[in-house]
Amino acid sequence: MPDEPTAFVPGHVTGFFSPAPADDPARAGSRGAGLTLTDGVAVTVHEADEPGVVLDGDALPMPPVETVLSGLGVADRARVVAESDLPLGTGFGVSGAMALGTALAANVRFGCERSANDLVTLAHRAEVEAGTGLGDVVAQARGGVPIRLEPGAPAYGRLDGVPATRRVEYVTFGDLSTAEVLAGDTDPLVRAGEAALDRLVDRPTLPTLVAESRRFARDAGLLTDRVREAVDAVAAAGGAASMAMLGETVFALETGLTDAGYDASVCRTCDAGAHLVDGG
Amino acid sequence: MPDEPTAFVPGHVTGFFSPAPADDPARAGSRGAGLTLTDGVAVTVHEADEPGVVLDGDALPMPPVETVLSGLGVADRARVVAESDLPLGTGFGVSGAMALGTALAANVRFGCERSANDLVTLAHRAEVEAGTGLGDVVAQARGGVPIRLEPGAPAYGRLDGVPATRRVEYVTFGDLSTAEVLAGDTDPLVRAGEAALDRLVDRPTLPTLVAESRRFARDAGLLTDRVREAVDAVAAAGGAASMAMLGETVFALETGLTDAGYDASVCRTCDAGAHLVDGG
């Protein structure tokens, strides 16, 4: 094989969600909706005596990645090297992307002969077990603008989508701990998330998705001051924006943040789900 | 809206299949597997007093497209203009692509506010009712290398995939009538298709997919002389090729047909499923 196998996994901002716990991590997850992004994570898997995970040049522990490698039986000889367009811990699904990209690339590198659904399931379970995400992996596997109708890995979950493609802008002010939010009282999240999903299913368009995300963030009490200010500024400039779940990150359709005077990063919704780009 | 909405739908070559009829066209379809292609069909929908369908400059009747437009309630005012990289009737799923691309683009053009699954269901039903295809639409909606585990539209069907991306070559000698083949004795197809699917699920790789496709085409008695000659020539040159279901078309991985001396068209497996490209 000339090149080491590399997978690209789109970033994913969740706009609203309701946690759906279950004893079996393949059945656990969340309902909700969000946008996958052309900004994402490229994950390469090497065979090496020194296993480990490197993200943007820094070695770091990443439990979901290690769980995926163990599930494939290659934890003692895989070195994972990832380059991310997006910061970790700020609501872009970077840890889910690392887990799913590792599954796709390691499957090729070590000839594991797993199916796409098997690899998504491995990564989804690993994320749920680590408490780092509930719905990113299945959304990132799909691409586009995923609606998560039922929680869980492919054998249990059910996805639909908003049929649209659009320019997306984002700014990040800081990180939030998914695990910490989920450890608190999640009843308001569940109520607000289910109401938002009902309304989006009734009218599956991008403007509805962003409007329901904004209502969810407010009703669930998750807006920080900096995020509220940016979201309000975009609305005042005639645009549509909301907060990424879970990070101190604001995303907007089209030129929403730029029009409001922010120095935003620019990408698009990602037409393709996670896929091998080289050596696959 | 500055531009008329346009959808791109990848081509799809089915390598093997087993028909799965049902009274409800949303539950009918086929099991099987194939490759989606970066060569495909771009479909634009205009509002016009003169409705109609134009493919590569020629007006033609296309019942699945008309059924989709009727399902969206816009048959009297939609003009569908498509450009295809691939010939019609030769096993590339062009009619499925026309139906699905029309659904995606018309949904935007006329503000129908349907979900992705709703649009796929409309197009799948229309193809099944017209007898022009059984599994192309759901495969084209997914992208990649789809395995159709269970037949039917998203509410009923079940998909997996071979996690791979690869250069694909193809040559076309002529057309075959899907409706005619399906009107014959389909028992050998069902037996050969189910056996091939079992073996691919057991080992979901591209070489398995092509090898099982070759065995299926032979066992089901569908190889024409020209197709057999090309498939054998690719194998003799060390490559992997089989026949597209249903057309007098041969597809090969990597440089298989070129290595065997054929003047082949070149594309890749398509990482993205059907999606809006403009005005969406």
Automatic annotation (TrEMBL), chains A, B:
Enzyme Commission code(s) on record: 2.7.1.169
Reactions the enzyme catalyzes: (R)-pantoate + ATP = (R)-4-phosphopantoate + ADP + H(+)
Source superkingdom: Archaea
Ranges where the GHMP kinase N-terminal domain occurs: 76-144
Enzyme class: transferase
One GO-annotated biological process of the protein: coenzyme A biosynthetic process
Molecular function terms, GO-annotated: ATP binding; kinase activity
Pathway: Cofactor biosynthesis; coenzyme A biosynthesis
Sorted UniProt keywords: ATP-binding, Coenzyme A biosynthesis, Kinase, Nucleotide-binding, Transferase
SUPFAM superfamilies tied to this protein: Ribosomal protein S5 domain 2-like (SSF54211)
Biological role: Phosphorylates (R)-pantoate to form (R)-4-phosphopantoate in the CoA biosynthesis pathway.
Family, per entry: Belongs to the GHMP kinase family. PoK subfamily.
Protein name per UniProt: Pantoate kinase
Protein species of origin: Haloplanus litoreus
